[in-house]
Amino acid sequence: MKDKKEIIDDKVLSRRKFIRSSTAGVAAAMAFTSEPVKAVMKEVTAPELSKGCFNIKSITIPKDLTDSINSPAKESTFSESGITGAEVFAQLCKKEKLAGLFCCAGNYTVINAMAAEGIPCYGGRTEGSMAAAADGFSRATGEVVAASGTEGPGFTNMIVSIASANAARTPLLVLASNMQISGEDREATIQNVYQQPTTVGMKKYGKRLITPNRVYEYGSYAFRHLKSGIPGPVHLDFPSEVSRAVFKDPSELTDYYDKKNYRTESRAYPMPTDIKKVAEMITKAKRPLLIAGQGVFQRKAWDALYEVMDIQDIAVIGSGPSVGHVPDDHKLSAGTANSALMSVDLIVFVGQYCMPSPNEWTLPPGIPAIRVNPIQEDIGRNWPIELGVVSDEKFFLEELANVLPKKKRTSWVDELSAARQSFEQHSQLTYKAAVAHSDKTGFLHPAVITRDFEEFFFRGDIDPKQTTYAVGGFTIGRFAARWANSYRPGQTIVCGYQYGAIGPEIAHTLGAGIAVQRGVGPQASYKGAPVVCITGDAGVAYSMFELDTANKYKIPMIVIVSNNDCWGTYGTTARTPQALQMYLFQHGIRYDKMAEGLGVRGEYVKTPKEYRDALARSYNLAVKEGISTLINCQGIKEFGSGREYPPGPSWPVEPGRGSVTH
Amino acid sequence: MFYSLRHDLKPLIPTYYLIKKLLMITKQFTNNLIEACDVKMKHYVVKRVFTSMPKKEIKKNNITYYIKWHMNRIFTLKIDTQIKKITMGPILPNVNKNSKMDKDFRKFIWSFIGSSAENHKRLSLTKKGVRIVNHNGNLSFSVVCDDDDNYCNLLEKIIAITHQVYTLFLRNGGYDEYLVDTFDIDLDSYF
To answer: What is the ipTM of this complex?
Structure first.
C-alpha cells in the first residue's frame, strides 16, 4: 500500500497505519484508485504531507473509538431481566433498516440502545450539524435516517436542521429525550421544554410518548409516515418513563407485530384513462417539458424516466434537494437550456413536491400543465392544472412508457442543444472575466473556484459520475450554479434547497460522504470515493467542527471555502453604510489553520494556479490516504458586485441548474 | 338649389356608404379584438399569471390594459388598432439611457427578431416595426402587427418576453445593485 518513495516521519506512519487497519473506509478509498485517476495523481512526498497535515502531533484517534466501532452488535431480547422501551424502539428501527443515526451525546438511553442494536451510529460535535449530516445522507440516498439530541438545548439546537429537512421533504426521524412526565410543569431539574409544539409546521408527524407500553405502536406510527406518501420529518420525544420502562414479554406491548402487518408497501397506480389523456397531451405538444422532481429520485424512477424521454424526445429538468437523476449530458436535458424554456408548450410535473407559482418560473405564461403526485390533496396547489394524476412516480412513468407512441422532435432537440451552448458561452465569458479579475487583484474569483472545480472533477481524467458533492453559500453558490454538473442520481446536494440556511454544507457533505463510503443506494457505484463541499466563509462557521467527525470516521472530504471576508448580502447596505460593518469579517481569516487544528489538512490559496495545485494534491491524498483537506480560497467581497467586477454572479433560473427554491 | 345640391351629392352616395361600411367593419374588428384580448387576459388571470383582471381603457383606436404583475408593478399594454401597434411598458424603470443595462436589454429584445429566432418565439422577421424606447429611464418596446389575424399570437409573445425579462434577463448577472436600488428586493429571498 505504501509508496516506497515516501519518506515519512515514523510517528506519522505508525498513526496512519493504525487508522488504516481499523477503518474500512480507508481501505475502500485505497481500492478506488483507478487507472484514469492515477494519471492525475502525483507522487506523495514528505513536504506535501507535512503541509498542514498531521503536524499537530497531539491529535490522535483514540483506540477506544476504533474498538467501539468494531464492537459487535448486541440485539436485545425479551428475557428474565426484560428489555427497556428504548431497546424495543431500537429493535423496531433495526427491522425497518434505519440507514443511520446522527447525534450528539444526549437522549442517552435511546441512542445507546440503537448503537447496541447494530444500527450505524455517528456521533459529532453539535446536534444541529449532525441533524444536517443526517439530512445530507438522506439527500444522497433517499433513505430514512435519524437524528438525536438531548432534551432542551440539544433538541432546540436541531431546529434549523429540522426546518431545513422539512423544506426538503427529508424522511428524517427526529429523536429527543425529555425529562420525566412526573416532573412536568414543575421545572424539575433542568432542560424541560415542550418539544412537540416547537416543531409544529416543520414535521410530517410528531408524538410525545407518554404511555410506556405503546412505545412500539408509536414507533410503527413513525415509520408509516416516514415510508409513505410525501416524505418529511417525524418527531418523537421520549420521557424517561417510556425509554426506561422494562418489558419482560411482547404481550406487554400494544400492537407488537411485524412491519408487514402495521404498514403496506402498496402505492397508487395511475388510472388508465389518465395515462391515455397524458399520452395524448404529450403527443399533441410540439415542445413538451417534464419536470422530474424529488419524487422521481425518492422512488428510484430514473430508468423509467429515461425511457419516456427517449420515446418522444421530451425535454426534462431535474429538481429537488439533490439532483443528477437527469444527467446533464443527456441530449434532452434542459437544465441549462434557459433560453429554450420560452418555447415550451406543455409542462408535466412528476414528483414535484415543492410546487412553484407560475410567475416564479421561466416558462410561457399560461401554458397547460399536468401534475403527477402520489397524494391527491396537493394537486392543484400553487399552479393551476389541466390534468392531475394521482400516482406513484415510478408506476406513472412505467405506464406512460407503455402507451406513449414513438415520435421524433428533431427541431426541439436542436433548439435545446443551441440553448445549452448559449449557456455554456455565457459561462465561458464569465470565467474569462473572472480570470482577468483574479490576475489583476491577486485574489481568487469565485467563478475561477467553481469553474476549475468543474474542470478537475468533471472534464479531466476523473470519471464525471464519480464525485458526490454538496454546494451552498450565497455568493459562491450562485457562481457554482453555472458549473454544478451532475450525471447520476444523488450526485449533487443542493444545500440551500427551499429553506436557504447558510452553513449546513460541511455537515451535508459529511452525511453524503458516509453514504458514499458505505455505498448506499445510488452511491454504490462509487463506493469509497472522496466527496467535495463548496461553501463560503459565512457558512463554514456553522458546521466546520464536523471536520473532526469526518476525520475520526475517515470520510475523505475536500472542503472548498470561498473566503470573501463577509456575508455575501453586504450589497444591501449600499444606501446605509452605517450597516455595512455588521456584514464584514476580518480579512484573511485562516480557516485552513482551523482545519489543521481539527486534524485535517489545510491549504490557503490566492491564485488560480495555487488553487488547481491544491485541488490535485487534496484529491491525491483523499484517494490514496483517506485524508481530508480544507482549501481556503482567499477572495474579496467586491467580486460579488457586478458593477465593480462584471459580470457578477448570476441567479439560478428556475427551472434549471442551481435552482434552490423549488 | 336644393335640386342642384342633391344632384351634386348623388355620385358621392356610394362612397359614403362604402366609408360607412368600412367604419362598421373597423368597429366590428375593434370590438372583436377587444373581446379576444379580454379572453386572453382572463386566461392569464385563471392561470394565475396575473393576480387580477387588468383594468381596461378604450379611447378612440386605442385599447389599454393596466396589468399588475412582476414586482407588484403596473405594466401598460397598449394596442393601437389604427396603426396596428402593440406596446408594452414600462418594462424596466430607472435605467439610464445608453447604459450597459440599456444596451443589454436591447440586445435581449433583438434576439427575438430575425430569421435566427425560432418561428414560435419570433416577434418579427425584421427590425422594421419593432421599436425599443427609453423614455426618462423607462424601457419599453413596441411591435407593429403585420397580420390582422396575428394580434393575439403577438400579444402572447409580448407577454412571454416581458415575463422573461424578469425571470431570465434580470437573473443573468450584473444587476444586483439595480434590483436592490429599484425594487428594494430582499437578496436572501430573491432566489
So the answer is: 0.89
